[in-house]
Amino acid sequence: MTRFTREELQAARDRLVPDVVADGLRVLFCGINPGLMTAATGHHFARPGNRFWPALHRSGFTPRQLKPSEQRELLSYGLGITNVVARATARADELSPEEYREGGHILAAKVARLRPRWLAVVGITAYRAAFGDPAARVGPQERAIGDTRVWVLPNPSGLNAHWTPQTLAEEFARLREAAEEG
Boundaries of each Uracil-DNA glycosylase-like domain copy (predicted)? Predict the structure, then answer.
């Protein structure tokens, strides 16, 4: 993996990272917003220690653990990635409530256009802020966007330590099983 200087990472602030999407996906995963490592590399969930890629594999979504640089392979499995807020920051707490709400509107429009079977928001706090649902819990939601069902997954950041790699993979597997059912 490329090593970036502090200056190179800071230069990635506010960059946009292209979505990995297509029409009719099985699951569209939605992160909070790109971190600086993601923005510097152009690859989603690129920060070392982020557990998204291991959880995706351990849950059975992918036959092997993909590297962030292999993110386009997700499309061959009917999977994609986007974000609630498009601009890159060092930390999610740099985002304003208005950015989350606006991101929720943009995300809903994107989902209506792409029509994935499931939208999986990766991070309960981001989901609550973007969709104005303070009582939401991890798991399937009552909300749907058109015919797209919504599931909230735990944030796979290494900072979210109360979700172990095992329990994270188990929650991802619950979504995979629901997505396979139809």
Answer: 18-179
